[in-house]
Design a protein that fits this description.
The protein is mostly helical and 235 residues long. The protein contains eight helices and no strands.
Length: 235
């Protein structure tokens, strides 16, 4: 059959034919190829962010648990301070260091007579440290959300361009052997978009959940720390 022979000519239906991804990329239209390069770049950056943030969040969570254990177990604030200095990845320990530094400042500042003024200064220091640590936790994560939402549409754009080229080729009376490669290129662009988007969406949801837990721990620590300072250090 003519149709079947045409399909076999381009390797469709032949179990021994290879699936040459590099060949699809190299033979793609320049616009489609540019879309593929952009998506591959987004994929590689996303993979780097996923691995980096996974290590960062994991270590931050582990060191936060270590600090909380030390904070509630020890009665020596100097010992807690020394331990917190070693836990640089923990956002809670960094909040403690900020509060401890501010407490030392106001203890030697004779201009602050009121306990309320002193508490306000400590609270501002804690809030500033919390904002800084929250920014560190969330850094680069929005890129994953952007990749997850935009990559499929960028890939679809490449697909549309590929299909337009295919239709233009068909308009000049091309054979099936001339049309199939363009269709494959178009679908390849969509596939790359999905490959870039799926892990980014999953990783974004995961990191958002873990960061929300750490933020909750920071907020809880702020209230507990202020209560302890007010009860034991400021009268």
């Amino acid at each position: 059959m003519p149709g079947l022979s045409s399909l076999n000519a381009v390797g469709v239906g032949d179990p021994n034919s290879g699936f040459d991804l590099m060949g699809l990329f190299m033979s793609a239209h320049p616009v489609v190829k540019g879309v593929m390069v952009l998506l591959i770049g987004m994929l590689l950056v996303g993979i780097y962010i996923i691995f980096y943030k996974a290590l960062y969040v994991r270590r931050a969570s582990r060191e936060t648990a270590q600090f909380n254990e030390s904070f509630w177990r020890s009665r020596d604030i100097e010992q807690i301070y020394k331990h917190a200095q070693m836990l640089r990845w923990s956002p809670v320990s960094q909040m403690f260091l900020a509060g401890y530094t501010e407490l030392a400042k106001i203890a030697s500042d004779e201009r602050l007579k009121s306990s309320d003024d002193k508490m306000d200064n400590i609270e501002r220091a804690l809030r500033k440290a919390q904002a800084v640590e929250g920014t560190k936790l969330e850094s680069m994560v929005p890129f994953l959300a952007s990749t997850g939402s935009a990559a499929p549409f960028i890939g679809l754009f490449g697909t549309v361009i590929g299909i337009m080229i295919t239709f233009n080729t068909m308009g000049h009376g091309a054979k099936l052997t001339d049309i199939v490669p363009h269709i494959a290129e178009a679908l390849f662009a969509t596939a790359i978009g999905l490959v870039a988007a799926i892990p980014s969406v999953l990783a974004y949801n995961y990191f958002t959940r873990r960061i929300r837990v750490l933020r909750s721990e920071m907020e809880t620590f702020e209230q507990d720390y202020l209560n302890i300072i007010k009860r034991h250090f400021l009268h």
